[in-house]
Specification:
By secondary structure, this protein is of the alpha/beta class. It is about 35% helix and about 25% strand. The strands form 2 sheets. An 8-stranded parallel beta barrel has the order 1-2-3-4-5-6-7-8. A two-stranded antiparallel ribbon has the order 9-10. α7 links the parallel β7 and β8. This is N-(5'-phosphoribosyl)anthranilate isomerase.
């Protein structure tokens, strides 16, 4: 399994444990209060206490005050900060002084790739654009855009990934990583054990 796998929108310890038992590389915790997958930092702290070493802990933020991000990142010892809003190049560079940062870009069409050039980053996440939500829509975007995006860096693919399309996504696009959320849920923020097991088996067998 060469592709890196992150399960995002974790809100329960039992979901984190199932994901880890089945081979994920990273867990994502959403600190955007308007998200239905929002989790309070104190609850994340309790989950992290029970996570074994070598599992990356990712904090997902949307247009958050930069000082609040730094504080949460340090308190929880987050390994990666994932920025899912309209954060500027300067904002990202400031956070990179103390953290590994992944910038997410919500894709409407191929013109969105022009934004990536400005950030000059080694890796980035591509997700489906929605006017209603910052990620976690369960919808795919045009994957042909991913092929073009790879010339700017390593692509982490998100948006509508599930057990029915994950093999095609990995085989066809060969992304650096995949970010899965709604595709393994019963409800927003509540993961389905069987769906996690099924999608991880497909990925590992790929």
């Amino acid at each position: 399994m060469n592709v890196k796998v992150k399960i995002c929108g974790i809100t329960r310890l039992e979901d984190a444990q199932v994901a880890i038992e089945n081979g994920v590389d990273a867990l994502g915790f959403i600190f955007y209060k308007k998200s239905k997958r929002y989790i309070e930092p104190n609850k994340v702290k309790e989950i992290i206490k029970n996570i074994p070493p070598f599992i990356s802990k990712v904090g997902v933020f949307v247009n958050e005050d930069i000082n609040d991000i730094k504080r949460i990142g340090k308190e929880l010892k987050l390994d990666i900060l994932q920025l899912h809003g309209e954060e500027s190049v300067e904002y990202l560079k400031e956070l990179e002084k103390g953290f590994t940062v992944v910038k997410a870009f919500r894709i409407k069409d191929i013109r969105e790739l022009e934004k990536i050039k400005d950030y000059k980053i080694k890796w980035f996440l591509l997700d489906t654009y929605s006017s209603k939500e910052y990620g976690g829509t369960g919808e795919k975007f045009n994957w042909e855009i991913v092929k073009e995006a790879k010339k700017y860096g390593k692509v982490i693919l998100a948006g509508g990934l599930n057990s029915e399309n994950i093999k095609l996504a990995i085989d066809e696009l060969k992304p650096y990583g995949v970010d899965i959320s709604s595709g393994v849920e019963i409800d927003k923020g509540i993961k389905d054990r069987k769906k996690i097991i099924d999608i991880m088996r497909i990925i590992k067998d790929d």
